[in-house]
């Protein structure tokens, strides 16, 4: 019984969930959202044990959109600190590229999920304002934006590297080395 209690304790202390989502855009600036219960969210979900985040994003997007769908680079990495007994989580947002379509709503592959394309500024609960801003910044700059609890992470100040010699001065050779 004690071992079961300890494994339960350690299981709760070290629990960390990882999610992966995909930002699929249309050429006219709309974003794909899927209905999940009563909420609308970007395609994605939980990364399964033994699965990497990119594979998870690809798996979920392929199940909804197209069996040949692939994801691009990471746009946003968000570390969310757990509260009240919930473990921390790490959320990846991948670039799903752009599609050319005039469709506004459809049923996902297999008829299981309702989907729609909405203007980027109206995607609200599917992609909150800070993550939306981070994703657009990452797309524009060709970089990854790091968030902590949904807010831009303040980068640590970079210290100037110290000037150090590759080798100690050697008598008679300092002129050869340009010193």
Coarse structural class: alpha+beta
Name of the CATH homologous superfamily:
Nucleoside Triphosphate Pyrophosphohydrolase
Morphology: elongated
Strand content: 25-35%
SSE pattern: HEEEEHEEEEHEE
Cα Rg: 23 Å
Helicity range? 10-25%
- At CATH level 3, the topology is Nucleoside Triphosphate Pyrophosphohydrolase
End-to-end separation in angstroms reads 71 Å
Low-confidence stretches: none
Protein name: NUDIX domain-containing protein
Cofactor: Mg(2+)
Pfam families: NUDIX
Domain Nudix hydrolase: 14-140
Question: Concise description?
Answer:
With 179 residues, this protein is of the alpha+beta class. It has 3 helices and 10 strands; from the N terminus they run αββββαββββαββ. The strands form 2 sheets. The protein has a 6-stranded mixed beta sheet with strand order 4-1-6-5-9-10, with helices on both faces.
């Amino acid at each position: 019984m004690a071992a079961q209690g300890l494994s339960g304790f350690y299981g709760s202390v070290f629990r960390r969930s990882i999610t992966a989502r995909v930002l699929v855009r249309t050429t006219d600036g709309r974003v794909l959202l899927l209905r999940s219960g009563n909420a609308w969210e970007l395609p994605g979900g939980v990364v399964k044990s033994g699965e990497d985040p990119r594979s998870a994003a690809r798996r979920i997007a392929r199940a909804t959109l197209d069996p040949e769908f692939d994801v691009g680079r990471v746009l946003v990495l968000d570390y969310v600190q757990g509260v009240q007994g919930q473990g921390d989580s790490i959320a990846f947002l991948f670039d799903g590229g752009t599609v050319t379509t005039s469709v506004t709503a459809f049923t996902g592959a297999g008829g299981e999920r309702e989907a729609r394309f909405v203007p980027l500024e109206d995607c609200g609960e599917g992609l909150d304002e800070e993550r939306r801003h981070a994703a657009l910044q990452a797309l524009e700059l060709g970089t990854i934006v790091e968030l902590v609890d949904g807010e831009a992470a303040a980068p640590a100040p970079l210290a100037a590297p110290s000037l150090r010699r590759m080798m100690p001065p050697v008598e008679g050779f300092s002129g050869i080395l340009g010193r």
